[in-house]
Specification:
The complex is a heterodimer of chains A (about 180) and B (about 220). Chain A is an alpha+beta fold. Chain A has two domains: about 25-65; about 65-180, Beta Barrel (L,D-transpeptidase catalytic domain-like), CATH 2.40.440. Chain A has helices at about 5-20, 25-65, 150-160, and strands at about 65-70, 75-80, 85-90, 95, 105-110, 110, 120-125, 130, 145-150, 165-170. The longest helix of chain A is centred in the N-terminal third of the chain and has 37 residues, at about 25-65. In chain A, about 25% of the residues are buried. Chain B has helices at about 5-40, 40-45, 45-75, 145-150, 205-215, and strands at about 80-85, 90-95, 100-110, 115, 120-125, 130-135, 135-140, 140-145, 165-170, 175-180, 180-185, 195-200, 200-205, 220-225. Chain B has five helices and 14 strands. With about 220 residues, chain B is α+β, with helices and mostly antiparallel strands. Classes of the chains: A alpha+beta (about 180), B alpha+beta (about 220). The interface of A and B includes residues 38 and 159 of A.
Chain lengths: ~180, ~220
């Protein structure tokens, strides 16, 4: 069968007509799509930056000669680590007196309370205090996040970590905190 | 009212007005700024938005590449061999591989007691801490009684090579040598496992010791804290 101009013209015309029917050239749709793309990309970049921050922390710690902590507040677990080795895994929970979200990223141990009056605590600046469950509550700042750890797990951490030790608080999704066990 | 007083009053009024303005304007700015930031994308023209999306795509791609590189670097530093960890505070030993715990054992660690000889020589019985390695493995280890063992029992210290120093059967069936006289070995005092009772060695129950001995190799890392 031979294709003549008589056949070709209706085909081209209907193709041109149908091109407009998909709505792709609608400027409003274009714009909405771009705004959504913008939103998703911004979120993705934020997540990648958070991941990168932790990867850099890990890389640095693997080269260091001191023990450090990785706390996953959302999952309610923590790890005591030395270089690329996990020395201890422990459970943790946030204090019921705390009603704001946990800090995230790297922290540094600034103070170890001396244990007088059974007040043991690992103080990470104004951001976070780690303390044994059931012990008298240590006072921090208004925005100090309190993490509770079983006494048997806490004491080894208390003795092994030195002032200046690093901790990384992972918090990959806000919603994860809701699953957090509250004592 | 002098001119000076008038000027002072004017200056006071000006400060008052400025203060009031700051109090009114600051919360307004604080309230509107986040909203403005959220609307950044919406306030751009479609072409500007298209350009911005393109830039963000490139940024995301670059970050993904960087993270992939970092992940690879970290993966290369990871080790999948078995290692031992001893927690001298809670008297627990764990045999681990990566993040997996293969076995945990209740152990005995250094008593943290102090012994002093009349001559002034003294010993503090503490388990060594830090990063150590298994230097050797022994079956049916023999204990060569050190000087402190005699001092502790108010006995005269024999000569260095005195055969009386050789004691068999007190260290269990197996021992892992850590160096400087420290070992991971068995014990006759099984009731004391879980406490600080040793002279610095790590004492382990028979069943746990057998598994650990058979699993670890010379060179296995031992982390004591």
């Amino acid at each position: 069968m031979t294709i003549t101009n008589r056949h070709l013209v209706p085909v081209v015309l209907s193709a041109l007509f149908l091109m407009g029917a998909d709505g792709a050239s609608d400027p409003e749709n274009d714009r909405a799509m771009l705004i959504e793309q913008h939103r998703q990309l911004t979120m993705r970049i934020e997540a990648l930056k958070v991941e990168q921050d932790f990867l850099i922390f890990q890389k640095e710690c693997y080269a260091m000669d001191s023990k450090y902590l990785v706390l996953d507040i959302g999952a309610g677990t923590g790890q005591l680590k030395y270089k690329n080795r996990t020395l201890k895994t422990f459970g943790l929970s946030k204090s019921s007196r705390v009603h704001f979200s946990a800090p995230s990223g790297r922290l540094q141990l600034t103070e170890k309370t001396d244990g007088s009056g059974n007040r043991y605590g690992l103080v990470f600046g104004k951001a976070l205090i780690m303390e044994p469950k059931g012990a008298p509550f240590l006072r921090g700042g208004k925005q100090t996040f309190h993490v509770l750890i079983g006494k048997k797990d806490f004491m080894p951490l208390y003795y092994v970590l030195e002032k200046g030790a690093l901790a990384y608080v992972k918090q990959d999704a806000k919603g994860r905190e809701a699953r957090f066990r509250v004592d | 009212m002098t001119v000076l007083q008038l000027c002072r009053r004017m200056s006071f009024l000006r400060s008052l007005c400025l203060g009031a303005a700051v109090i009114i304007i600051l919360p307004f700015i604080a309230w509107t700024l986040p909203a403005l930031a959220e609307d950044t994308a919406a306030s751009l023209t479609t072409d500007e938005l298209r350009g911005k999306v393109q830039t963000l795509e490139q940024e995301a791609l670059a970050l993904e590449e960087q993270n992939q590189g970092l992940r690879k670097m970290i993966w290369e530093l990871e080790e999948n061999d078995i290692y031992l960890v001893v927690d001298t505070e809670s008297n627990r030993l764990s045999m681990r591989q990566g993040d997996k715990v293969l076995r945990t054992a209740v152990v005995g660690t250094g008593s943290r007691h102090f012994v002093e000889e009349e001559t002034g020589r003294n010993w503090y019985f503490e388990s060594p801490t830090g990063s150590l390695s298994v230097l050797g493995k022994e079956r049916n280890p023999v204990w060569i009684r050190p000087d402190w063992s005699y001092v502790e029992e108010n006995m005269p210290v024999p000569e260095e090579n005195d055969p009386d120093r050789i004691v068999r059967g007190v260290l269990g069936k197996y021992a892992l040598i850590l160096g400087n006289g420290y070992k991971i070995h068995g014990t006759m005092y099984k009731d004391l496992l879980g406490t600080h009772f040793t002279h610095g060695c790590i004492s382990v129950g028979d069943a746990d010791l057998e598994v650990i001995y058979r699993t670890v190799k010379v060179g296995t890392k031992v982390y004591i804290y």
